[in-house]
Each structure stands twice: as structure tokens, then as C-alpha cells.
Recover the amino acids of this structure.
């Protein structure tokens, strides 16, 4: 069931959001030590913030602000906190997010309408292939949302293809929630153990943490690798702990749908001004309906493009395109600007590459250097030249490439302290 606000007109959605914005600003001005102090220091009269366009009168909130003043963002007393979630901090220490009972209800609502967007309905069974522990918001959010939808959940957790297939064959889930690259491991295990995966109960997967599409919404190399073998429908979703909100694709696969009752979205340039329609910039949001730790104009660090043309699913909300890259991870290499996802796509074009990591360092001149370490089935000079030519054709530059082994890379990629595989390592002396 599509919420009424998501099929309203653009003018109605804007008016609704402006009413909610006024409520939020009054709330944080009274309850948030961080924002009440900020508004006072900047001499900001929140009564003057009446429209979405007026948001530019407010300063942005950064990850560094959250890091330095974490406790000052809390708007409720500690005894109101039901769940404690953390996200990795940009300055080294984790940032804590408290959630009240109301916030958990909002989280469940967000996931329920997001999963409904992707086609999950009451009567489905979903295999949860992500962690639900270690203060990880997403796993809990998925469980709460599916429970709200009256959908069966199999909490298998991350990794272990054998256990995943055991659960699929035993409980017959219709959807999986997983990191997409792990589906390749699932396919490999099934092929090696004579599992007829294309005749399994699984018809779709909600994919997190890695992109499935190019900027024009065509399938990228990773999603093609998966669906060329396993004939299931893949749905991309984009979310973060800070926003407690997801942007999930519908069946038409043209971007993650915005939920205007939960979040206000801006895309800003390097001077914190809104970009022109159709241009890319840094996704910045203002949360609505959060009780414990609402955020105003929070910069995510993710470079995206918004899409506002109508979707065939009937929703009139804007859509967030695939993440182009993280602002902090922008690389200037031999006069070319690159983001890690572009290099991932090049590497995923080769079936013989078993695993890889990308390392970025600064040289003595202060410019960026790229080293890619690969585990390849047949590491020949001919393959190396073919890979370099492909990089040159796709990205105009060729990074330094070294061959290594799966055994050497696996513990680096699958760090037990990380919630998802790590392929990118930024070892530069200074960031962006």
C-alpha cells in the first residue's frame, strides 16, 4: 500500500514537508542542546524558515559535528532511550545514536513501506543475511519492518553459504536481504554442490552496501554477473544510520524512492548551495519524526543525482540515483577525477578476478597514487595488459596493479570488526 503523501502532487508534498519542517525546528530549538546553541550563536530566528528554499538560511551539520558534540544532539533523557546504535566516526571514535520507542516505530514504518516498494508482501518469507547485533541499526530495522508487515523472517546473519542454502532449501524464503557480491559466493557454492538454484524458492533480493546500477539505471557489471546465472530480481536500497530512512527501488528500477513523511532531501554543491536540477552533488537531509536525535541539513558525504520525473509505479516522490562516490574518497589521479565505484565496475567486468582491494596513498608531491591488489585465477602478463587496457578505455588512466592471493586478501576484505566487505583503503596523509 503506497502512503497517500507519496502519490500526492509535488505542490502538496512540498506544503506537507514545510509544515513538518516548522514543527521540527521548534522541537530542536527547545530540546537539542546542539541546535539551540547553534541557532543562538548564528542569530537564527527559526520563524523565518518557512519554505524548503529557506533551508539555505541554516548552517549544515557535518559528521565532524556529530563526532565532537555527540551527546548534545540528544533531545530526550537517557531513560527514554530503548536502543543504542553506533556508526563508525570520521575522526576515529564511533558515533552513538539513541532511539526511543517512537523512533523504533518510525524505523519499522520506514522499512515496511520500503520493502513494500520492492514488492515484498504479507505471506512472503525473507532471509535476513545481515547482522542484527553489534549495535548495527540496519539488521534491527529490517527485522522490525518485516515484522510490521507480518512477513516471516529467517535470521541467518552474514556469510556461510552452506548455512544460507540450508535455510533456503528448508524454509523456502521468497526474498533475501544481502550484500550483492555475496550472492556470487552463493552461486559458486550452489554450482559446486549441485544445488538447482534457479528452481529455488528465491525470486528476489534486496541488496545493500554495493551499487547495482550505472547512472542511467542500466545494470552494472556486478548485477549482470549475478543475474546472468541466477534469474532473480535485484532491488537496490540506500540508507544510513544517521537518516534512519531508506531509499529503495520499486520494480521499475529507476532510483530509490523518497519518503517525504520521513525526510527532507537536498543536493548541495561544494559551497553548500543547492545544485541545479539534474546536476550531481552531496546528498544532505533533514529528518522528520525522529524523537531522540533529529538532524537538520546533515551532509552525508555521498555524491548523487536526484530524479524528479514521474515513476510508472504511481509514486510522485523524487528518486535518488546510484551513489557516484563518497566526497571524502574522491581521487585525483594523473589529471582525472575518480571515485572507487568506477574502479569497482571495471574490475567486476572480469570473471577471472576472484578478489581485490584498492589502496590510495599520497606521494612525495602530495598527489594521489592508486594500487590495486588482485587475486586472479590465471595471473598472466596477457591478462594484466588486458586489464590495463580496459582501465584506460573506461577511465582514461591505468592504476598500478599487483597480483596476490585470495588467502592474503580475504582477511583484509572480510575484517571481523566490519559489517560488510571492505575493498577500499584510503591511506592518504590528508583527506577531502
Amino acid at each position: 500500500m503506497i502512503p497517500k503523501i507519496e502519490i500526492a502532487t509535488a505542490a502538496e508534498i512540498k506544503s506537507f514537508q514545510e509544515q513538518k519542517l516548522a514543527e521540527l525546528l521548534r522541537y530542536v530549538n527547545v530540546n537539542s542542546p546542539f541546535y539551540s546553541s547553534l541557532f543562538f550563536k548564528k542569530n537564527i530566528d527559526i520563524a523565518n524558515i518557512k519554505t524548503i528554499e529557506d533551508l539555505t538560511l541554516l548552517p549544515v551539520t557535518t559528521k565532524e559535528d556529530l563526532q565532537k558534540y555527540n551527546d548534545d544532539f540528544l533531545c530526550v533523557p537517557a531513560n527514554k532511550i530503548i536502543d543504542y546504535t553506533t556508526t563508525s566516526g570520521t575522526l576515529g571514535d564511533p558515533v552513538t545514536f539513541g532511539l526511543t520507542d517512537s523512533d523504533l516505530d518510525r524505523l519499522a514504518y520506514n522499512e515496511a513501506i520500503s520493502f513494500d516498494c520492492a514488492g515484498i508482501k504479507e505471506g512472503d518469507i525473507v532471509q535476513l543475511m545481515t547482522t542484527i547485533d553489534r549495535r548495527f541499526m540496519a539488521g534491527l530495522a529490517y527485522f522490525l519492518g518485516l515484522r510490521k508487515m507480518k512477513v516471516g523472517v529467517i535470521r541467518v546473519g552474514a556469510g556461510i553459504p552452506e548455512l544460507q542454502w540450508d535455510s533456503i532449501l528448508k524454509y523456502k524464503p521468497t526474498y533475501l536481504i544481502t550484500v550483492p557480491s555475496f550472492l556470487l559466493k552463493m552461486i559458486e557454492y550452489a554450482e559446486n554442490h549441485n544445488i538447482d538454484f534457479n528452481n529455488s524458492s528465491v525470486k528476489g533480493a534486496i541488496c545493500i552496501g554495493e551499487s547495482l546500477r550505472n547512472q542511467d539505471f542500466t545494470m552494472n557489471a556486478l548485477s549482470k554477473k549475478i543475474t546472468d546465472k541466477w534469474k532473480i530480481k535485484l532491488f537496490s536500497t540506500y540508507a544510513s544510520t544517521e537518516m534512519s530512512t531508506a531509499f529503495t527501488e520499486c520494480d521499475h528500477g529507476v532510483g530509490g524512492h523518497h519518503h517525504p513523511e520521513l525526510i527532507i532531501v537536498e543536493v548541495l554543491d561544494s559551497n553548500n548551495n543547492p545544485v541545479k536540477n539534474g546536476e550531481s552533488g552531496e546528498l544532505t537531509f533533514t529528518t522528520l519524526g525522529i524523537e531522540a536525535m533529529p538532524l537538520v541539513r546533515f551532509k552525508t558525504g555521498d555524491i548523487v543525482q536526484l530524479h524528479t520525473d514521474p515513476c510508472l509505479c504511481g509514486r510522485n516522490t523524487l528518486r535518488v540515483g546510484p551513489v557516484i562516490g563518497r566526497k571524502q574518497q574522491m581521487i585525483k589521479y594523473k589529471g582525472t577525477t575518480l571515485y572507487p565505484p568506477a574502479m569497482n565496475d571495471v574490475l567486476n567486468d572480469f570473471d577471472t578476478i576472484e578478489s581485490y582491494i584498492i589502496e590510495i596513498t599520497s606521494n612525495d608531491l602530495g598527489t594521489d597514487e592508486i594500487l590495486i591488489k588482485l587475486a586472479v585465477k590465471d595471473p598472466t602478463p596477457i591478462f594484466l595488459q588486458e586489464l590495463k587496457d580496459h582501465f584506460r578505455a573506461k577511465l582514461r588512466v591505468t592504476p598500478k596493479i599487483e597480483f596476490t592471493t585470495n588467502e592474503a586478501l580475504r582477511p583484509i576484505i572480510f575484517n571481523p570488526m566490519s559489517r560488510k566487505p571492505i575493498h577500499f583503503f584510503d591511506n592518504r596523509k590528508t583527506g577531502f
